[in-house]
Amino acid sequence: MRSGVRALAVALPACAALLAIATWATHARIEREAHRHALALLASVLPPDAYDNDPLADRTAVTQPDAFGTREPANVLRGRLGGKPSAVVVDAVAQGYAGPIRLVVGVRYDGGVAGVRIVEHAETPGLGDAFATDGGAWLARFRDRGADARWAVKKDDGDFDQFAGATITPRAIVAAVRKAREYCTANRDALFAAPEK
Ligand SMILES: Cc1cc2nc3c(=O)[nH]c(=O)nc-3n(C[C@H](O)[C@H](O)[C@H](O)COP(=O)(O)O)c2cc1C
C-alpha cells in the first residue's frame, strides 16, 4: 500500500508536468496558426510592397458605427513605408440579404482601395455569394478605386456589377467599402496617431 502511495506521489507531478507541456504546446500551435491566418488575410488586402513594418503589431481600434457598420470597436492595422504612413487595413460589416457580411478593407494613404476580402457571410449560395465563387474577380474591381469612382452598382449608375438576380448583396458590400474608405481617408492622420490598442 505504502509503495502504491509513493508511486502515485511520483506519478502525479510527472502527469501534471506533461499536461502543462502539452497545454503550452497546443497554445503555441494555435497562436502560430492564428498568426499565419492573419498574415494571409493581410496579404490579400495589402500588397507586400505597400509596407515595411509589421502591421499586425501596429494596431489600434475605433468605434465608428456609421463608418464600419458595427457598434464594436473595428480593428485598424497600420502599414508604414520608410516610417511614413502608407495604408490601413480595417474591419467593416455590411448588412447583406441574409445578415452581416464581415469584410476586411485595405485603404492606401492616398485614398485608393488596396484590396477587399470577405471573411464571413450568410448570403444565399448560387445567388448572393457570387463574390465568393468567381475566383475573386468581383472583389478585385475595388482595387485602386478612390474618391472619383461611382460608388454604386451599375443598376444604380455606379461602377460595380450587380449579381444576376441578387442586387442587395453587392449594394451592401459597395456601400460598406465606400464608407470605410471615406472614413479612413478623411481621418488618416488621426488613425496613424492613435494609441496602440
Ligand atoms: C430565397 C431567396 C434568397 C435570396 N438571396 C439573396 C441574396 O443572398 N442576395 C441578394 O442580393 N438577393 C437575394 N435574393 C433576391 C432578393 O430578394 C432581391 O430580389 C434581389 O436582390 C434583387 O434586388 P433588386 O430588386 O434591388 O434589384 C434572394 C431571394 C430569395 C427568394
Automatic annotation (TrEMBL):
Similarity field: Belongs to the RnfG family.
Intracellular or extracellular location(s): Cell inner membrane
Designated name of the protein: Ion-translocating oxidoreductase complex subunit G
Cofactor(s) demanded: FMN
Membrane topology, as annotated: Single-pass membrane protein
Source organism: Tahibacter soli
NCBIfam families the record matches: rnfG (TIGR01947)
FMN-binding domain mapped to chain residues: 96-184
One GO cellular component term noted in the UniProt record for this chain: plasma membrane
